[in-house]
């Protein structure tokens, strides 16, 4: 399990360097831009796509996530907080180290425009558990 996590983190780092896409557990992340600014920090600008009828794995970001919903409907599930429903045109922020995940609703996948700001030495995300077992709608 630890080896898989290390491979995923390495793939994410390589994808960010070359500005390409990668898929993690059915979730596609396309890095649009990446820059080191301010000194010691990295800003990643991404498109995240999650298939319908699925849930992302619970995870944290060692920094700030700022997201704008492009397509689809989902619940943002954050540990210790009530679930929040999001639809296209809405936006949200996830604080440093908040354990959270997206639960996709309906028959459409979600597509998100996400900016991650974190210390340059840290990964964009760290998985904190297994995704919910769900059947696609």
From TrEMBL:
Signal sequence, start to end: none
Entry-linked SUPFAM superfamilies: RmlC-like cupins
A Pfam family reported for this protein in Swiss-Prot or TrEMBL: Cupin_2
InterPro entries: Cupin_2, RmlC-like_jellyroll, RmlC_Cupin_sf
Positions of the Cupin type-2 domain: 47-116
Protein name as catalogued: Cupin domain-containing protein
Lineage of source species: Bacteria, Pseudomonadati, Pseudomonadota, Betaproteobacteria, Burkholderiales
């Amino acid at each position: 399990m630890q080896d898989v996590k290390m491979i995923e983190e390495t793939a994410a780092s390589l994808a960010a360097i070359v500005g390409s896409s990668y898929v993690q557990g059915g979730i596609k992340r396309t890095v649009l831009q990446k820059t080191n600014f301010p000194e010691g920090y990295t800003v990643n600008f991404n498109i995240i796509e999650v298939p319908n009828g699925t849930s992302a794995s619970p995870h944290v970001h060692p920094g700030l996530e700022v997201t704008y919903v492009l397509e689809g409907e989902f619940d943002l599930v954050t540990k210790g907080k009530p679930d929040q429903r999001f639809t296209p045109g809405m936006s949200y922020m996830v604080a440093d180290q908040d354990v959270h995940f997206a639960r996709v609703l309906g028959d459409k996948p979600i597509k998100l425009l996400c900016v991650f700001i974190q210390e340059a030495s840290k990964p964009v995300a760290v998985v904190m558990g297994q995704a919910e077992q769900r059947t696609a709608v």
